[in-house]
């Protein structure tokens, strides 16, 4: 991409472009493990990851929590909901991306531009900001990984968007997504995401769940049809989450979403965007959800963050757990990458971190952790350190009665006859501790 844009003020003065310096470097404003152009398993690291910075947490999250107000305001943000401030914020965003060396970003429609007095004015304000985004993308070579619509913050969506009992709200949500898809298409976005923050319920007493699920599916079918109508080539994605803000979200976890997509005939149009913190909130490990989606050919993209095991809510922290990320990257390597997807840092600074350089430390640290995960996963894959042992565990399905079970030819009667002849199965150790030891040996 082009150098830092000379036509605008420099927003992050004193912070240089972040470069790769190698594992021996002591410079905290440098990459020690992420070398963008280095080829791993036949592909540059930057193409394995396609890292993206999210707009909402990074620039609109000011440190508020349920117990206290904002703790920071970026020096370039005057706090107003004006187009001028939105454009200044956008320019700072692109400078940050360039200095970080990240080639993609993601946004909600209401993060990037203010809301007007009605839908027509709101769309006009969004277009003004998108005009600037288009110019900045052309000037820098930075691309939009995905866009989405915020269908959860405004009071109109307090009872849901596509699952709202009021058809007027359903229609408003459809109009908002229509516009968000259009601007995503205009900016060359490579995906479009649906996160149903309020697509769920707080109480079944006042909820027709069957109707709401049907309306949700109809909404997604309309979106898939509109994608084709406007010629948008990007991948449509659904992001599961079990709860928060609703008590129960309909897109609870990967298995739930996969079942929903198949039930309503949507599995050819949608894939999954999996967020690590949402996986653990659903009671699963990150690698479990990734594996389930990948095995169904429905893993499309990843929201790169983590939660706190001692807290029961969505903390959206920067992930630096190298062992967990090694397991995650094993899944991504096995399916040879994420295609049009990528790794979006849906993560925010802690409330107590208030300086611009904290944003750099957070992203650098997590990017390096993911890079270590990829390096570890590549060595595990090349050495077949785990794969060969897993294959050994399941080798009984390669021939004989196992092969007949695998092919679907075996019957209960046949299996009963075979067991009566063969007798009791031999007990075989699963050797979990051996697998864990090998993983530890490869986690650097």
Main attributes of the structure:
10% strand; 16 helices; two-stranded antiparallel sheet; 444 residues; single chain; eight-stranded parallel β-barrel
Set out the fold topology:
Layout: E1 39-40, E2 43-44, H1 45-49, E3 51-54, H2 55-60, H3 83-100, E4 104-108, H4 109-112, H5 119-140, E5 143-148, H6 167-186, E6 191-194, E7 200-201, H7 209-230, E8 235-238, E9 248-249, H8 254-263, E10 270-275, H9 276-281, H10 286-295, E11 299-303, H11 322-334, E12 343-345, H12 356-383, H13 387-393, H14 400-407, H15 412-422, H16 432-442
Parallel strand pairs: 3-4, 3-12, 4-5, 5-6, 6-8, 8-10, 10-11, 11-12
Antiparallel strand pairs: 1-2, 7-9
Describe the structure.
It is a single chain. The protein is an alpha/beta fold. The protein is built from 16 helices and 12 strands. The chain has helices at 45-49, 55-60, 83-100, 109-112, 119-140, 167-186, 209-230, 254-263, 276-281, 286-295, 322-334, 356-383, 387-393, 400-407, 412-422, 432-442; strands at residues 39-40, 43-44, 51-54, 104-108, 143-148, 191-194, 200-201, 235-238, 248-249, 270-275, 299-303, 343-345. The chain has an 8-stranded parallel beta barrel with strand order 3-4-5-6-8-10-11-12. Helix 5 runs parallel beside helix 6 (167-186). The two termini are 31 Å apart.
What can be said about this structure in brief?
With 444 residues, the chain is of the alpha/beta class. It is 45% helix and 10% strand. It contains 16 helices and twelve strands.
